[in-house]
């Protein structure tokens, strides 16, 4: 059992080695370790701060992008309303112009129809007059062949010309 029960000398030297090692670590290694841990903590804090700033910038960029999208949508809606208004205006102008042109064509057609009607009436009158003259000429020739009939015709014309009768 000697293996399991240490001697006083062994314990003493183990304690001395431990104390020297502890003193060396406390004097030299512990400040370096603490410095490394502190720099690592500071680096982590800076990383967290940068991450927070980046998150704030990202949120700001998102808000700005949403604002631009809203402005773009509003502008798109305004452009669509303006295009619709212009379309309606163009259609109304085209209707007005078409109505004006149709009225012009109708007026021209009425004038042409009236002119054709007058020409037809004049042609009809001319033909009727020509027929009447032909008939009158034939009647007058047959009636005026007799000298007594000629005298009666002259007397009746003179009677019609006299005032008062």
Give me the strand/helix succession.
HH
Q: Quick one: overall form? A: rod-shaped
**Helices and strands: which structural class?**
mainly alpha
Assembly state of the chains shown = single chain
| Percent strand | under 5%
Please compute the radius of gyration using only Cα atoms.
Answer: 65 Å
Number of E strands? 0
| Residue windows where pLDDT falls under 50 for at least 5 positions | none
Q: For the record, give the distance between the C-alpha atoms at the N and C termini, rounded to a whole number.
A: 188 Å
Major sheet: size, sense and barrel closure? Answer: none
Quote the average pLDDT. Answer: 88
Number of DSSP helices?
2
The percentage helix is over 70%
Concise structural overview:
The protein has two helices and no strands. The protein has helices spanning 8-143, 147-161.
Give a verbal description of the structure:
This protein has 165 residues and is mainly α. The protein has a domain at 59-118. The protein contains 2 helices and no strands. The model has no long low-confidence stretch (mean pLDDT 88).
